[in-house]
Structure formats: C-alpha cells, structure tokens
Specification:
Blueprint lengths: L1 H15 L6 E5 L3 E2 L5 H18 L2 E5 L11 H7 L4 E14 L2 E3 L4 E3 L1 E14 L4 E15 L5 H23 L3 E10 L4 E6 L12 E9 L5 E14 L5 E5 L4 H9 L5 E4 L14
Parallel strand pairs: 1-3, 1-4, 2-4
Antiparallel strand pairs: 4-7, 5-6, 7-8, 9-10, 9-14, 10-13, 11-12, 11-14, 12-13
Helix pairs in contact: 2-4
C-alpha cells in the first residue's frame, strides 16, 4: 500500500512538473572564403554536428540530408522545418603542411602533418533573424608517426572546437527541472533523489545539475540560491530519473526537503574531460 501511494504521488509530481522540450537547430551547409577541398569542409562540419548531437540538448536538421528546398534564403529553409535556430559555418583561413622527412638510406619516411584553420560559427534565431552567437575558432593540430595523416591532424585541431561548441550549447540550452522525491538518505544527508526529467527530455546519464532554492529579497522578489549538486545515475522513465547527490551540499538538500522547500534543478555545463577522446596519431 505504501509503495502504491508513493508511486501515485511521484506520478502526480511528474505530470504536474514543467518538462524541457528540445528546440531545433537547422544546420546549413558550411562554406569557405578560400580554396579548401570539400572533404575538409565536410570533416569540420561533421565534427560540429556530432558534438552538438552528443549534448542531447537540441534536435538537429541537417540541410544536406533533408529533401532539397527551392531556392530560398537559409533562414526560410530553417523555418520550413520549424527550426528555432539556424547554424552557419564559414572557413576563413586554412593552412595544411606536410613536414615529413624521407630517409633514402633506410628507405623510410617519418610522417608529420600540421593543420591550422579559422572557423566562424553563427547561430541565428529564425523568429527575428537575430544573431545570438558568433565566434571565430582559430585552431591548430598535428599528426606524426607511422599512421599520421592530414585527416588526423585536422581531427586533432578540432578537439578544442568540439569542447567549445559543446560548452556553448550546454550554456545556452539549459535544462530545468525539480526534485520530486527522496530515493535514499541517512540521518544527515541525501544520497539519491528522483527528478522530474526522463528520456522524453534533453538529458543523458551522467549529466549534472545544480540544486537551487528560491531566496527571498528585501523588495519581495526572489533569486535562485545553489545549495548542492546532483548527477543522473539512471533514466528510469519518460518523465523521471534517479540522481546521485554529490557529497557537498547533500545535508542542505535533505534539510530543505524535510522543510517542504521546493528544490529546483538547472543543468550544468560539461567538464573539460567529460567524454574526452584524446589526440589522434
């Protein structure tokens, strides 16, 4: 009976919560202001698309994979697919060098490649045409050794771009939710909690959230005050997940819960070495 009451209460909390909905980004073809081979443009574009997709924060519409539209402006194409945003990329500069050294005596060659490029990314809001983000990425990378290649040098140059793109997406497209029940705790600290976000929301296992409460101001307003942090350990349904409570602030979370204070969640950006791929030879 207690279990049934708990599940009913959890269901009511979940269905009454506000659930994040993924917004859509239409990714236009990338262009170059200089002479760059198509394969390199495709490689850079694919890296950007992959990293945005890995965040699971937004839906992506790839201009190169959908049915070709009539000759209209990119923002009009984005609107045809009900995308709230248009992403455009332009390669402004590129230098590719082969610094390999051949050894006629030993009939061998030491491969060594270098890559340098400048990529401009712009994110445009389709509702009014406002550019909400524009940045130039000046990247360098190299690849040396037996299996070295120019492709791998470019991939290594893209490592920082991937991280910066992911960070921006996670900062701009934040996910909001709430703690709806305690899963486990001891006398002083919360251990695990249920949250009202699940696989229908733009989240993934391992994702971190700040836990906040509303702090009252003298003028009657409120501001969020961080009291702790949780990390998704398992997504267990369409609208809820189990989170591990991080040790710092775990006592504050349990105390606030016991007092009946609403515990809000706001997603954090990924950390530097989350999903780290490392350099390629």
């Amino acid at each position: 009976m207690k279990t049934r009451c708990f599940l009913l209460g959890l269901l009511l909390c979940i269905t009454s919560g506000i659930h994040a909905q993924k917004q859509t980004i239409y990714v236009d073809n990338f262009y170059s202001e200089i002479n760059v081979i198509a394969a390199t443009v495709t490689q850079i574009r694919s890296a950007v698309i992959d990293e945005i997709g890995n965040t699971n924060r937004v839906r992506l519409v790839d201009a190169l994979t959908v049915a070709p539209a009539e000759e209209v402006a990119p923002i009009e194409k984005a609107l045809q697919y009900r995308a709230q945003y248009l992403l455009q990329g332009t390669i402004l500069h590129r230098e590719a060098t082969d610094d390999g050294i051949s050894s006629p005596r030993f009939h061998s060659r030491e491969n060594s490649y270098k890559e340098a490029f400048t990529l401009r990314l712009q994110l445009i809001r389709t509702s009014d045409g406002t550019t909400i983000f524009s940045r130039n990425y000046e990247e360098t990378g190299s690849s040396s050794g037996k299996d070295a290649s120019q492709y791998n040098a470019t991939e290594n140059a893209l490592l920082n771009t991937r991280y910066e793109v992911r960070t921006f997406i996670e900062q701009y497209f934040r996910v909001h939710g709430a703690i709806v029940n305690m899963a486990s705790h001891n006398a002083r600290k919360a251990k695990k909690v249920y949250i009202n976000l699940g696989y229908e929301d733009p989240i993934k296992e391992g994702q971190r959230f700040d836990v906040t409460i509303e702090k009252s101001l003298p003028d009657g307003g409120t501001v969020p005050e961080k009291i702790g942090e949780v990390r998704i350990s398992e997504i267990v349904g369409a609208r809820y997940s189990v989170c591990k409570v991080m040790s710092k602030g775990a006592d504050n979370i349990l105390e606030a819960w016991d007092k009946g204070i609403k515990l809000h969640l706001v997603s954090r950006e990924g950390r530097l070495f989350d999903d780290w791929r490392g350099p390629i030879q």
